Amino acid sequence: MINEVDEYKRVLLAILRAHTSTALSMLQSINRCLPEKTRSVRIMVHVPQDAEGMFSVVVHLDGPDLFVLNKAIGDFRYLFDVRVVNGAITPDVPLFDPFDQPFSVNDAIVDIAMVWVKELWATFGGMKVHLPVTIEGEDGFGSTPTISLTV
Fold it and tell me: What is the pTM of this model?
């Protein structure tokens, strides 16, 4: 088990970077099918309350009729998603006992996911239309509540 926040962040960033090409492909697909009525893009780091180390990085479109907007990108929204598949955690990220954590796991996840998304966005180069784009941690987790992305 990882007991130091810096070590955890280092390990997690390496895992996220290993999935950069897949996430980049998702962003490119979103860019191709971006609904015209989209007014902004939010990239959310979703973390569970029990903070065991599972999380998702998901693209959300804002504008009129959120359901329609987000359905249009439904196949591409998840840039990174930790799930249980056939009894195994996929991708294999470090997990923690939610009742005995050496540091705030959810804060660390959001902080390092934001670093990764900034790197990913810089590689991606931005949407075909100029829109406000932010990265946010769910429920206020992370040391920075919101980061605006520009290219």
Answer: 0.94
| Helical residues (DSSP H) of 33-90, grouped into ranges | 66-72
Give the CB-side neighbour count of residue 136, counting CA atoms within 13 A.
11
- Report pLDDT digits (tens) over 8-25: 999 999 999 999 999 999
Q: How does strand 40-46 pair with strand 133-137?
A: parallel
E strands of 63-149, at which residues?
78-81, 83-85, 88-90, 133-137, 146-149
Tell me, what amino acid is at 93?
V
- Three-state DSSP state, 80: strand
Q: Which of 6, 7, 17, 1 is nearest to 95 (CA)?
A: 1
Question: Taking the alpha carbons of 146, 105, 58, 67 in that order, is the dihedral positive or negative?
Answer: negative
74: alpha, beta or left? (left if phi > 0; alpha if psi -120 to 50)? alpha
